[in-house]
Design a protein that fits this description.
Blueprint lengths: L10 E12 L2 E13 L4 E5 L6 H8 L7 E6 L2 E2 L5 H11 E5 L10 H12 L4 H10 L15 H13 L5 E5 L7 H18 L2 E5 L11 E6 L2 E7 L12
Parallel strand pairs: 3-8, 3-9, 6-7, 7-8
Antiparallel strand pairs: 1-2, 1-4, 4-5, 9-10
Helix pairs in contact: 3-4, 3-5, 4-5, 5-6
Amino acid sequence: MAVAAGARGGVLLRGVSKSYASGEAAVHALRDVDLDIGPGEVVVVLGPSGSGKTTLLNVVGGIEAADRGRIRVAGKELTGRPPGSLSGFRREHVGFVFQFFNLIPTLTARENIEVVAELTRRGDRRRAVELLAAVGLADRSDAFPAQLSGGEQQRVALARSLVTDPDLLLADEPTGALDMATGRTILRLLQDANREAGLGVLMVTHNAAVAAMAHQVVTMRDGRVQSVERRPAPVDADQVSW
């Protein structure tokens, strides 16, 4: 996997809370969350729907600002930053992979990657071609999203997330809409990026079996971190049961 070398992507959260207005009430998505993720770790976040998993990704990635608490990602303090500054942080330090691929339908696979490189001014055409080869889609670079299978679209989305050489990759249910074989392919690509290049990975999933490939497993409930389990010997992605 062609990602810049070096262990990266450490995360520190202290007392992080986030709520949303819902009529006259407030929904507390995160409640005083503390979390420590070392550089170059794969961390899997488990928990039922509504437990705060996606909101956790959003505040770590600078998509949303926390109401209170300290957030430090890839050596950068996010606490109190204005929205414009968070946008710059995302471009330079974070890659995103979601369950729904969000590819631009009128652009080819290669162009979907190139447009991110152009918008962020990081990466170039050659980089897009290299990443498509890395995810096994060198021969599909001129195909449009509608001409690609779900697994191929997810691999394009993964390549797109890596074109800026992020410090941390945030993945929200990246295998949720995929069959077992394709899901394992995505997990293998994420693990390769971590092992070969030290890329930090923070992944939300409903599939508890995926936790076997993580250095840490974080379980959330009702907006709180319920438990953190460290695993000294993550298994290969190919060995993850489904």
